[in-house]
Each structure stands twice: as structure tokens, then as C-alpha cells.
Amino acid sequence: MTEQQTVRVMVVDDHPMWRDAVARDLATAGFDVVATAGDGQQAVRRAKATVPDVLVLDLNLPELPGVQVCKEVVAALPGVRVLVLSASGEHADVLEAVKSGATGYLLKSASTQELTDAVRRTAVGDAVFTPGLAGLVLGEYRRLASDPGQSASADDPKAPQLTDRETEVLRLVAKGLSYKQIAERLVISHRTVQNHVQNTLGKLQLHNRVELVRYAIERGIDTPDTHDGTTSPDGSLR
């Protein structure tokens, strides 16, 4: 997925007026809305039939919960990225969504511009969160990484071997830089950054950028620079 390609989007929400409004806003912004769904089972069927680039997903769904939809879609269609759009900002809901495979989490209070920007960035691999939630996710990953029973040893001889460049890109991903920012910092193309990330995902048998962040934190790869913060102002993982 490049920034120039039309992004295929599917919108899932059980409220018809809200669902139609989100679909209309995204279509107006230039996205190709390939399907909508009003319940969880319908969402899984239509996602498999249409294979969108981005699934904009509510969590509170009849028939099948949103987190289960996320799990099933990501398992069946690893290339689909899931952006949760929910009224809930509860920490448990955010963490459950991310653990289920969502690559971003936006509150329904977000403006139309924030939503369209989030969908566009999700499509190219960025992890986008409503400000404040990214720090929550990273904090949870760091908590898990501090538990010796949860993290794998960085010296494990069976661990996949990354190249120096892949490790460098992974470190910047874990700091929350967008692909564009990584490309500028390393003086390489946006496509090259994407290729390094895809190669790393394949080697580590991971599915998305959020899982990469957790992997980096667990192994201490995310060593911060003194000028880096925890989250960027726009809610990117940092």
C-alpha cells in the first residue's frame, strides 16, 4: 500500500446512521468504501469477501464482539489493518483491542479530519491512537517486558536474526516514528522503510506494527534518545 493508491475501507458499526455517516465521510475524503456491516458475523463474512485495506471497527457489536471480529479477520487476512473506532476509552477495552490485532484505536469523539487522517496513516502501516492511549499501550508492554516470565531472552540462539538496518528501523518504529519520519531520519525512501518492516514482520512471524513495538520493548531495542518523548502530539506510538 502506497500513499498514492486508493485505500479500500470497510466500516463496521451497529448504529445505521453513524455507520452511514462514517462511510459517507470516508468516501468524500477519497477512500473506496467497499463494504459496511452492522453485526460481528456479517463483518467477518464481508471482510473476507471484499478484503479491505483498513477495517474501521466498533467494539460493541451484536452477534460477535468487535474484539473477536478483529481476531478472526486478522487471522484470515493478515494484510488487513484494523482501526478501532469506539465510544469507549476504557483502558481494558483499548488493551484488549490491541491484543486482538488492532493497529490503532480512535475515540468516536474524533473529528472527521482526525478520522480520515487516521485511516490514511493506518493504511500505510502507522499505529494511530487517540492522544493518551498510545502511552497506555506502551506502558502495558513495558510492564509485561519487566516480568521475566513474559519476555524472551535477547540472547536466545533460536531468535530470528535481523540485519543492522532492520534493527535500526525497528528501533525507530518502537519509538513511534511514522514511516515518513523514519525515511527522513535514515535518508532512505518511504518504500524502503516499508520493505524493511515487512521483512522484519516475516522473520519474526508477527502481524502488525503494534506487535513489532512490543517485540522491541521486550528485548530492549527501543532504547530512547534523550529528546524522545513517550507519545507524539498526534497520538502516534512513540
From TrEMBL:
InterPro entries assigned: CheY-like_superfamily, NreC/VraR/RcsB-like_REC, Sig_transdc_resp-reg_C-effctor, Sig_transdc_resp-reg_receiver, Tscrpt_reg_LuxR_C, WalR-like
4-aspartylphosphate modification, residue list: 58
Keyword Coiled coil among record annotations: no
CDD domains associated with the record: LuxR_C_like, REC_NarL-like
Coiled-coil residues: none
Annotated ranges, domain HTH luxR-type: 155-220
Keyword field: DNA-binding, Phosphoprotein
Transmembrane segments: none
Residues annotated as domain Response regulatory: 8-123
PANTHER family assigned: TWO-COMPONENT RESPONSE REGULATOR
Protein name: Response regulator transcription factor
Gene source species: Streptomyces albipurpureus
